[in-house]
Design a protein that fits this description.
The complex is a heterodimer of chains A (570) and B (180). With 570 residues, chain A is an alpha/beta fold. Chain A folds into three domains: 5-176, Dimethylsulfoxide Reductase, domain 2; 178-219 and 296-315 and 347-385, Rossmann fold (3-Layer(aba) Sandwich), CATH 3.40.50; 425-557, Barwin-like endoglucanases. In chain A, β18 (475-479) and β19 form a beta hairpin. Chain B folds into two domains: 1-58 and 129-171, Alpha-Beta Plaits (2-Layer Sandwich), CATH 3.30.70; 60-126, Alpha-Beta Plaits, CATH 3.30.70.20. Chain B is built from five helices and eight strands. In chain B, the strands form four sheets. Chain B has a two-stranded antiparallel sheet. The longest helix of chain B has 20 residues, at 153-172. The chains are: A alpha/beta (570), B alpha+beta (180).
Chain lengths: 570, 180
């Protein structure tokens, strides 16, 4: 995020785009509610009547997959009505003329067929956003999980540049990341193209720095993104094939799109290593399982979506007979066994190595994390007076070589798999409060399972339910070109008739059986938010109920769980 | 005056933290037991979501409770400004569920007590404002957006004063269109 999460409540206008804070991050949603209480206006852009839409001054209930058409149209109105910050554009940006040209064809009237949003509402949103004086954009997976994702982010950045909403308190654009510490994974270089601190692997000076620090030669090639693993296992020639897959803290057999293809690649792999706290669906394919400690059994540093580093502390010791190690201890031992001795005494030693190699993290010492609780990078100096950076781009300075923000002129492109006669509905993944990500953690918490349990729900408009003759709580079959799953019908007028929504953590209601592995060309994030599906009524509900129980027990059996012991818990 | 917990739909984000807190408060350490039947998951409030509203619905602790009036077994009493149900006296007739105008009383099966036909015995169940538990209503304590508040007589007095002032201001406003 360009600005801190704590700044949300001071914005005068929140433009919440494809971000369902209440279900994804209640703690961030609290800031949105507080902003509203303090008098902020809220524009919510979402195909569903999410909680933020309820309290919004304006809800643009756009058609799924029309993001960039709507964003460019808002830009069109801002230009047409002379609401741009001309001074900011002139002094701190490049590429505006080309962008202005592109926007000409995106009048609200021209895009209304694509977006299903009334032109008056687009005009109103543009005026509100451009004139509040302090507008902040928050976006989430409703932007990122499309084949056209990065370009929508650039489109949202265009809006912030053209109205001068960068480089001040309570403005900017905020990707509120999907998972806790996903920011940390990126910060620490768990990306195919960078070392920790976003230092590119293809830059010779940077590679030399890391080679010197670690005493080994390093590759200058960009690696393979997670979502391309199935392709590299199944379709690449022998010489380029992936043979071994070391997975930790992840469950690709549950969380990745097109699960049938994921299973095929897991079966083909010569070696699968899984490092996790409980058995999960990927564990079924693992040759080696390395049990590791849970979040409360180890120390470390997390980074929040707003670049804030925070320490996490061990609360309890793992059971003495559990034979588990922390993730970093396991990695150290594997590395040592493979011929690169890796020895650390504690997480502070690891952290010191990280910050010394990453100029933008250097000032975030354990001492400061301890004293201030939270340090947002960039924090370059170890002196106690450098407390980090709440918002980026101060004085209109941007990270491009010319120091200017760059306008991106990009046309809207429709999603990959559109609804059709055989699959007439739009399928999209969603979140629910209480169950986090795959069910490795929350699915093993009994109280949360009491709240919601297998096989999960599919959100359907009541008119659609009536058409299909299905009632609340009935089991239904959901089918796409790639697979099917069984789940329960949840009628709700918060969704439109054309689209249905499921959460992705359930083993039986595993909606990634349906999703499509169509990737954004830059981020390689899959199009979880759009594919075509149909919903079928199941006539024999008693059979369906027993099918769910039986399948659930079979999955537990395949994980080596004593099913008789847990039977009462189902 | 009896007290009650009231949710504000403009602040509620429908996260159901209150629902879990209610169970945790009433079941205590039993939630840690390995035995799946070791505790009951019976929240005493229900988060309702409609097109425009999300808010938990729970007992209003009425001054002349309909549930108490219809109770045949004397299981419902008012004590410490709270309407309470005595599970042991409840005969499971469901009259209170039918009588309550807010849908705040529902029936729940008791853990181990069986009816003669082998089914679990059900009793009436509702919000007890965490009566006898430390720290007051748990739902209010845990709400991340402070959408829940415990309404006492002074809060009502304040609300009334505010409404009366508002009405007065509107009535004396020059812009108001008076009927001709």
């Amino acid at each position: 995020m360009s600005n801190g999460v704590h700044e949300i409540e001071d914005a005068k206008l929140l433009f919440v785009f494809g971000y369902n804070g209440a279900d994804s991050h209640p703690i961030v949603a609290r800031r949105i509610v507080r902003a509203k209480r303090k008098g902020a206006q809220i524009i919510c852009v979402d195909p569903r009547r999410i909680e933020t839409a309820r309290i919004a001054d304006l809800h643009l209930q756009l058609k799924n997959g029309s993001n960039l058409a709507l964003v460019n149209s808002i830009a069109h109105v801002i230009i047409e009505e002379g609401l741009c910050d001309d001074k900011f554009i002139a002094e701190h940006s490049s590429g505006f003329d080309e962008f202005k040209e592109l926007c000409k064809k995106y009048s609200p009237e021209a895009v209304t067929g694509i977006t299903q949003v009334h032109p008056d509402d687009i005009r109103k949103a543009a005026r509100m956003y451009a004139t509040s004086g302090q507008s902040m954009i928050l976006y989430g997976m409703g932007v990122c999980q499309f084949a056209q994702a990065v370009n929508v982010v650039k489109g949202l950045a265009n809006l912030a540049i053209m109205t001068g909403n960068f480089g001040r308190w309570g403005v900017g654009i905020g990707p509120v990341r999907g998972q806790n510490n996903v920011q940390g994974a990126c910060d620490m270089g768990a990306l195919p193209n960078s070392y920790p601190g976003y230092q590119n692997v293809t830059v010779p000076e940077i590679r030399a720095k890391f080679e010197k620090a670690w005493g080994v030669p390093l590759s200058d090639k960009v690696g393979i993104p997670l979502t391309q693993v199935p392709h590299y296992v199944l379709h690449e020639p022998e010489a380029k094939k992936i043979r071994a897959y070391y997975v930790f803290g992840e469950d690709p057999a549950q969380s990745d799109p097109d699960l049938a293809e994921v299973r095929e690649s897991l079966e083909k792999l010569e070696l699968v290593i899984l490092q996790d706290i409980y058995m999960n669906r990927t564990a079924i394919y693992a040759d080696v399982i390395l049990p590791s400690t849970g979040w409360n059994e180890h120390d470390g540093v997390f980074s929040c979506c707003d670049r804030g580093f925070q320490r996490i502390r061990k609360v309890i010791d793992p059971p003495a007979d559990a034979n588990v190690l922390t993730d970093w201890e396991i990695i150290s031992r594997i590395s040592t066994a493979m011929g690169y001795p890796m020895k650390y005494r504690n997480t502070e030693e690891i952290w010191n190595e990280v910050i010394d190699l990453c100029p933008s993290f250097t000032g975030a010492t354990y001492e400061k994390l301890e004293k201030y609780g939270n340090i947002q990078w960039p924090c370059r100096s170890k002196g106690m007076e450098d407390k980090g950076t709440s918002y980026l781009h101060k004085d209109g300075k941007f990270a491009n070589p010319d120091g200017k923000a760059k306008f991106s002129s990009i046309d809207w492109q429709p999603p990959t798999e559109l609804e059709n006669n055989e699959y007439p509905l739009i399928f999209s993944t969603a979140r629910e409060v209480g169950h986090y990500s795959v069910r490795t953690m929350s699915g093993n918490c009994r109280l949360l399972r009491n709240l919601e349990d297998e096989p999960g729900w599919i959100q359907m408009n009541p008119a659609l339910c009536e058409e299909l003759g299905v009632k609340h709580g009935e089991l239904v079959k959901v089918i796409s070109k790639r697979g099917h799953c069984v789940t329960r019908c949840l009628p709700t007028d918060r969704v439109k008739k054309q689209a249905v929504y499921m959460t992705y953590q359930w083993w039986i209601g595993a909606c990634n059986e349906l999703t499509i592995a169509s990737l954004d060309p830059i981020s390689n994030t899959p199009e979880y938010k759009y594919c075509a599906c149909r919903v079928e009524k199941i006539e024999d509900q008693a059979w369906a109920e027993s099918y769910v129980l039986r399948e659930y027990e079979n999955i537990r059996l395949s994980m080596g769980i004593d099913v008789a012991k847990g039977r009462k818990a189902i | 005056m009896n007290r009650y917990v009231q949710g504000d739909p403009l602040l509620c984000i429908g996260c159901r933290t209150c629902t879990i807190a209610c169970v945790v408060a009433h079941e205590g350490k039993r939630i840690y037991e390995i035995d799946p039947d070791g505790y009951d998951f019976h929240p005493r409030l229900k988060v309702i979501k409609t097109f425009n509203v999300s808010v938990p619905v729970q007992c209003k602790h009425c001054e002349n409770p309909a549930c108490k009036s219809v109770c045949q077994s004397g299981a419902i009493r008012v004590q410490d400004g709270t309407v309470l149900i005595d599970r042991d006296k409840c005969i499971g007739c469901k009259s209170c569920t039918e009588a309550c105008p807010f849908g705040a009383v529902h029936m729940v099966p008791l853990g181990f007590q069986l009816n003669p036909d082998g089914t679990r015995r059900s009793v009436a169940h509702k919000c007890d404002l965490c009566h006898g538990l430390e720290g007051g209503p748990a739902c209010k304590r845990v709400c991340p957006t402070e959408a829940l508040r415990l309404v006492e007589s002074e809060d009502l007095a304040e609300l009334l004063a505010m409404k009366r002032t508002k009405v007065l201001m509107t009535a004396s406003s020059p812009e108001i269109n008076r009927p001709v």
